């Protein structure tokens, strides 16, 4: 119940350290005094953890408190936190707008003095508090533990996927285990769920992999027609020659016929925009799990529908969630992480995993967490507790409209009605997140409300809501740290935006392709994460601007601006994706990448106008030796890339993706790739020969080749790598397929041949 108070204490520390604004001298001492008193109360609160937990439990159960004195003190602390945040927000915003040190006005000084007096009173009240009877606390703890166990629902493997299309096509999903799997796409953070599902559905690979396909859009109707849905599925999945004999049958007979037909087929069914459980009830009845890799892909209108899914065989069916977004960056923007470090944020996440509140579903080669999920037994608590302690408000958590209006965070997850009640929420709002279930254009009136009412926003994420043009007024949200917008028409970043939003940590516009960026970009010293469909950075203006030492992630940078001067002014960049005509910019790129001495992950995506005439010469590239992850796509390399790449001493993951190499031979020299753990060779359609020298890739754990239609044998040295435990081979040539089937250490190496049944 005192989480907001603890966060306020941490915020005062950051304010005094100059992380939010440069304080005028007259304000430093009053804020230091206030912070000292708040720290004392914080330490005292830690001694009452069990008592406060009991108080929260009683509040959730709507029971009378065993300790009304503690309840009164906690109410006073919540009021104090709210009023204190308002004073500090107003003060900092006034300084930020003026962009100069402001004097500490009498109103602000008086307000700080009033807060000082209030926290002193709270200290005195706390000194008189007594702990509750330990027997009562123990009894409550026992009942809470039992409630946690009993509330856990049937186990379902909820696997989050972070890399969008690449992961949904990976071996954990489309190409994954043989049992029927349901993949749910949550259109939550800037993702057009229908377009995303359509990209998977229409891909040539999916069309080839599955025997039959169906696309169903659920009708928005109160009168649900199950027979109509069944007819749609039959028309998509079954041969047209059989339709005349089937369509005249009754509902039950049609289900039986379709079920029997699907028993011999690997099928993919996409259900777009599921908004009621009725749709799933019908689909479930007609889908057999024939253990051959069939899949159902659904896009969700309401995330709560997931909870209602009941499977005929819960042990054999999996539910895979596809979330998006960066929670660690949100934590930092919210001020939850003391040193604003993603490494610290990840250590917090690891602690949550250790305690059982979160499950790590997928880790990267280096061990860092890629995707995670929340166990079902904790979801009711996580929906209730933040609401009860006024940490966050949401129409989703409060359908009756009784949300705590003083909460600093608003999470809008419903449809258009969510923004109609914005007037009910506190103008001191710090975070506005919109997990919209649908892609639609944002009403300009709603945008005016955002900018007019919530001038103290630190986090603004409008998810998949589309803005027709650059939104006026956004430059007045001076305190923003995290900004995510969907503006497809935007092709320029104006100086008014960049010069005013100097507190930004994350600027995320994945559907915008920026041709021009104002020089003021180089003044954004706090910027850490930059994500666009493509962005061209300006040349450094020289005077009055330095390097962007906090920037550690850029996607996707246009190669034309990858000069030695620009990259040299990004000294701590760790993750970089470059997208554009790499062939045309060969000379520029090959010499400048070495300036990024801290770079760990590099993705090169070529978009040449004439890709088959690629002039990319990898041997000329001066890659930084710090690289641990490297991927190529559409580069159409003519020369074997291995002799160049095997020299990178720290490389752990290498992905040669679609159309990355057009040659027929790969040669890995002796002792090459000393730290490589993951190797993906995809769409190397003409690869015929692969050789490895002694002690090459000694730490390789995972190898994926898809396809390898002309490769007749694997390197003999491969089988001497003791760490190899996963080898997925797609469409192997008959001779190679037989060798792999008969290989005596097949299980130890984790050899899997795809598609199943070949």
What would you note in describing this structure?
The protein is an alpha/beta fold. Helices cover 33% and strands 18% of the residues. The chain is built from 23 helices and 26 strands. A 15-stranded parallel beta sheet has the order 8-9-10-11-13-15-16-17-18-19-20-22-24-25-26. Strands 2-3-4-1-5 form a five-stranded parallel beta sheet, with helices on both faces. A hairpin with a 5-residue loop joins β6 (359-363) and β7 (369-373). α2 runs parallel beside α5 and α3 packs across α6. This is Disease resistance protein. It comes from Citrus sinensis.
Could you give the order of strands across the largest sheet? 8-9-10-11-13-15-16-17-18-19-20-22-24-25-26
Using only C-alpha atoms, the radius of gyration works out to 29 Å
The whole-number mean of residue pLDDT values reads 79
| Poorly predicted parts | 143-164, 187-191, 310-325
Tally of extended strands? 26
Largest sheet: 15 strands, parallel
Proportion of beta-strand residues: 15-25%
Class from helix and strand fractions: alpha/beta
* Global morphology: globular
What's the end-to-end separation, in Å? 58 Å
The helicity comes to 25-40%
Quaternary structure of the protein: single chain
Total helices: the number is 23
């Amino acid at each position: 119940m005192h989480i907001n108070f603890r966060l306020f204490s941490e915020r005062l520390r950051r304010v005094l350290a100059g992380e939010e604004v440069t304080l005028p001298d007259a304000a430093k001492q009053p804020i230091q005094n206030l912070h000292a008193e708040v720290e004392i109360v914080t330490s005292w609160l830690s001694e009452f953890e069990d008592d406060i937990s009991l108080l929260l439990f009683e509040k959730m159960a709507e029971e009378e408190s065993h300790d009304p004195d503690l309840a009164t003190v906690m109410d006073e602390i919540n009021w104090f936190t709210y009023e204190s945040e308002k004073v500090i927000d107003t003060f900092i915003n006034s300084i930020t707008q003026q962009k100069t040190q402001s004097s500490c006005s009498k109103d602000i000084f008086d307000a700080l003095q009033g807060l000082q007096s209030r926290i002193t009173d709270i200290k005195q009240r706390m000194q008189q508090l007594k702990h509750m009877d330990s027997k009562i606390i123990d009894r409550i703890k026992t009942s809470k533990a039992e409630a946690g166990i009993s509330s856990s629902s049937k186990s379902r493997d909820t696997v989050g996927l972070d890399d969008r299309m690449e992961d949904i096509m990976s071996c954990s999903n489309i190409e994954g285990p043989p049992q029927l799997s349901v993949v749910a796409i949550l259109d939550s953070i800037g993702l057009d769920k229908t377009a995303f599902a359509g990209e998977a559905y229409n891909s040539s690979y999916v069309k080839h992999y599955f025997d039959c396909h169906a696309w169903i859009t659920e009708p928005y109707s109160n009168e649900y027609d199950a027979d109509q849905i069944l007819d749609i599925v039959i028309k998509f999945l079954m041969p047209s020659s059989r339709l005349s004999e089937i369509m005249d049958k009754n509902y039950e007979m049609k289900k039986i016929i379709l079920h029997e037909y699907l028993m011999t087929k690997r099928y993919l069914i996409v259900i777009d925009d599921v908004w009621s459980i009725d749709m799933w009830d019908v689909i479930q009845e007609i889908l057999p799990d024939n253990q051959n890799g069939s899949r159902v892909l659904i896009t969700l209108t309401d995330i709560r529908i997931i909870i209602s899914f009941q499977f005929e065989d819960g042990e054999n069916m999996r539910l895979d969630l596809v979330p998006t977004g960066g929670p660690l960056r949100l934590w930092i923007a919210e001020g939850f992480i003391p040193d604003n470090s993603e490494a610290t944020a990840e250590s917090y996440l690891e602690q949550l995993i250790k305690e059982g509140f979160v499950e790590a579903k997928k880790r990267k080669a280096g061990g860092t967490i890629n995707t995670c999920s929340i166990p079902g037994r904790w979801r009711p608590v996580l929906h209730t507790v933040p609401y009860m302690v006024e940490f966050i408000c949401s129409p989703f958590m409060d359908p009756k409209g009784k949300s705590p209006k003083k909460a600093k965070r608003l999470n809008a997850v419903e449809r258009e009605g969510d923004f109609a009640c914005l007037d009910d929420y506190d103008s001191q709002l710090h975070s506005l997140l919109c997990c919209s279930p649908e892609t639609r254009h944002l009403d300009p009136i709603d945008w005016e409300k955002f900018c007019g009412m919530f001038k103290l926003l630190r986090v603004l994420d409008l998810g998949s809501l589309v803005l027709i043009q650059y939104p006026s007024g956004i430059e007045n949200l001076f305190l923003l740290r995290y900004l995510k917008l969907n503006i497809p028409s935007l092709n320029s970043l104006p100086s008014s935006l960049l010069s005013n939003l100097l507190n930004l940590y994350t600027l995320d516009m994945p559907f915008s392709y920026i041709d021009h960026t104002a020089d003021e970009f180089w003044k954004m010293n706090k910027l850490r994460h930059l994500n666009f469909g493509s962005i061209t950075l300006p040349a450094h203006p020289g005077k009055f601007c330095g390097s962007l030492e906090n920037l550690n992630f850029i996607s996707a940078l246009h190669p034309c601006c990858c000069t030695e001067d620009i990259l040299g002014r990004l000294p701590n960049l760790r993750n970089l994706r470059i997208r554009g005509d790499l062939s045309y910019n060969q000379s520029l790129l090959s010499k400048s990448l070495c300036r990024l001495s801290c770079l760990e992950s590099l993705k090169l995506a070529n978009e040449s106008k004439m890709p088959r005439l690629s002039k990319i010469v990898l041997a000329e590239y001066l890659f930084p030796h710090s690289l641990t992850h490297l991927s190529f796509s559409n580069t159409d390399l003519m020369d074997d890339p291995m002799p160049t790449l095997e020299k990178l001493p720290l490389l752990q993951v290498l992905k040669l993706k679609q159309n990355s190499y057009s040659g027929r031979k790969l040669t890995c020299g002796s002792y090459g790739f000393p730290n490589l753990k993951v190797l993906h060779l995809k769409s190397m359609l003409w690869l015929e020969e692969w050789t490895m020298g002694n002690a090459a890739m000694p730490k390789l754990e995972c190898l994926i080749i898809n396809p390898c239609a002309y490769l007749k044998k694997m390197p003999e040295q491969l089988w001497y790598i003791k760490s190899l435990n996963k080898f997925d081979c797609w469409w192997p040539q008959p001779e190679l397929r037989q060798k792999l089937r008969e290989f005596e250490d097949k299980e130890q190496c984790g050899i899997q041949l795809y598609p199943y049944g070949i």
